[in-house]
């Protein structure tokens, strides 16, 4: 059996990880794993069970008990929590904030990292997007990307996505949320957001989705080329 081909995409919120991750997975015929969705699902399960943000032991228990399934292809990925489709509920900045908080708990991380490794080892390979993929979950990933952009650009993108869901969000509010989330994700003790030494860093501030996509695709094809794994080379 050939070793699965792993593409890690890390970076702060709103840098384009999910859009690019999905596209890359589709193009390469790989599984797409949205690890942020798993933290979001745990945050939702905790809120529904009345477990407080500060109860680390309670949150660890919620993470261990939660059944989280990611289903469908990259463009229509659905997230199921204990058999219920929560794909819509876990989106939005409030759910992101909840996920950012529960993700500071080491036992929650340990449980989800274990599941992510299991998912990633299955099959031909996958594209995973998150904060610690290249540094912790798959430190030996075949290709690692770190996508970033200035906070103002990320807030503008987030606001565009949010508008469809919740009216009344302001640019200032979204920017404040992004800054707060960056701070928490980058300063937590366990697996903070950081750039892996061997990651390809792309600042997407001034680039179109298409430009970033083509650049990522070239990098992946260069790395994959010699190994002749996918059969999708010309
Ligand atoms: O990518 P996202 O916005 O859906 O992630 C939500 C939060 O989950 C993020 O602010 C931090 C946390 N997270 C994490 O700690 N590690 C990951 N691999 C993915 C997400």
Secondary structure blueprint with pairings:
Blueprint: E1 5-10, H1 17-28, E2 31-34, H2 35-49, H3 56-65, E3 68-71, E4 78-81, E5 84-85, H4 93-102, H5 106-121, E6 125-130, H6 133-137, E7 143-148, H7 151-163, H8 171-187, E8 200-203, H9 209-225
Parallel strand pairs: 1-6, 1-7, 2-6, 7-8
Antiparallel strand pairs: 3-4, 4-5
The structure holds 2'-deoxycytidine-5'-monophosphate (DC).
Please state the CA-atom Rg, rounded to the nearest Å. 17 Å
If you consult CATH, what is the topology?
A: Rossmann fold
- Summarize the biggest pleated sheet: 5 strands, parallel
Q: What's the number of structural domains?
A: 1
Give me the number of helical elements.
9
Written overview of the protein:
The protein has helices at residues 17-28, 35-49, 56-65, 93-102, 106-121, 133-137, 151-163, 171-187, 209-225, and strands at 5-10, 31-34, 68-71, 78-81, 84-85, 125-130, 143-148, 200-203. With 234 residues, the chain is α/β, with parallel strands linked by helices. The chain has one domain (5-224): 3-Layer(aba) Sandwich (Rossmann fold), CATH 3.40.50.300. The strands form 2 sheets. Strands 2-6-1-7-8 form a 5-stranded parallel beta sheet, sandwiched between helices. A 3-stranded antiparallel beta sheet has the order 3-4-5, with helices on one face. A hairpin with a 6-residue loop joins strand 3 and strand 4. The chain is globular, with a radius of gyration of 17 Å. 2'-deoxycytidine-5'-monophosphate (DC) is lined by residues 13, 35-36, 39-40, 96, 99-100, 103, 130-132, 181, 185.
């Amino acid at each position: 059996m050939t070793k699965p081909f792993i593409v890690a995409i890390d970076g702060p919120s709103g840098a384009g990880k999910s859009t690019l991750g999905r596209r890359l997975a589709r193009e390469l015929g790989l599984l797409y794993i949205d690890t942020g969705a798993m933290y979001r699902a745990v945050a939702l399960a905790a809120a529904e069970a009345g477990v407080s943000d500060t109860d680390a032991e309670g949150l660890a228990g919620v993470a261990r008990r939660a059944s989280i399934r990611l289903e469908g292809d990259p463009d229509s990925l659905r997230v199921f929590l204990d058999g219920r489709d929560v794909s819509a509920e876990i989106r939005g900045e409030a759910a992101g904030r909840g996920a950012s908080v529960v993700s500071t708990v080491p036992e929650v991380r340990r449980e989800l990292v274990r599941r992510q490794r299991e998912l990633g080892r299955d099959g031909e390979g996958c594209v995973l997007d998150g904060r610690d993929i290249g540094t912790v979950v798959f430190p030996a990933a075949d290709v690692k990307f770190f996508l970033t952009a200035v906070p103002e650009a990320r807030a503008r993108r987030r606001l565009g996505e949010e508008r469809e869901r919740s009216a009344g969000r302001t640019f200032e509010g979204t920017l404040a949320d992004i800054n707060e989330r960056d701070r928490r994700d980058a300063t937590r003790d366990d697996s903070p957001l950081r750039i892996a030494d061997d990651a390809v860093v792309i600042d997407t501030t001034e680039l179109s989705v298409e430009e970033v996509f083509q650049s990522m695709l070239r990098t992946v094809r260069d790395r994959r080329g010699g190994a002749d794994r996918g059969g999708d080379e010309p």
